[in-house]
Amino acid sequence: MIHSRFDDDAVREALRGVDDPEAGMNIVDLGLVYGIDVTADVVHVDMTMTTAACPMAEMITDQARAVIAAIAPEGTTVDVRLVWDPPWTPDKMTGVAREHFGWG
Known about the structure:
The protein is of the alpha+beta class. The protein has a single domain (8-96), classed as GMP Synthetase, Chain A, domain 3. The protein has helices at residues 8-15, 57-71, 95-100; strands at 19-20, 25-26, 33-38, 42-47, 77-82. The strands form two sheets. It has a three-stranded mixed β-sheet, with helices on one face. Strands 1-2 form a two-stranded antiparallel ribbon. Strand 1 and strand 2 form a beta hairpin. Helix 1 (8-15) crosses helix 2 (57-71). The longest helix has 15 residues, at 57-71.
């Protein structure tokens, strides 16, 4: 399904459909998505994992690419980059995520 409005918000909403299976929560609420930049023909997403040793990193980034490609206009390049700076910390989580883990 292609959104009539394809922008940063549409990409962020699509990424809410990608869960970190170890945490049981989507990558947006976990604070793993650092940046989204949508241009006419390219989507750049910078994201991280809770730890560099995350065994699910490849699977999660592949799922992120797939959900973006599913809503992107045909011919759009999807570039999902795994970054480690700044390091992830629990303060990057949304209030919903903090409450879920009892940190609210």
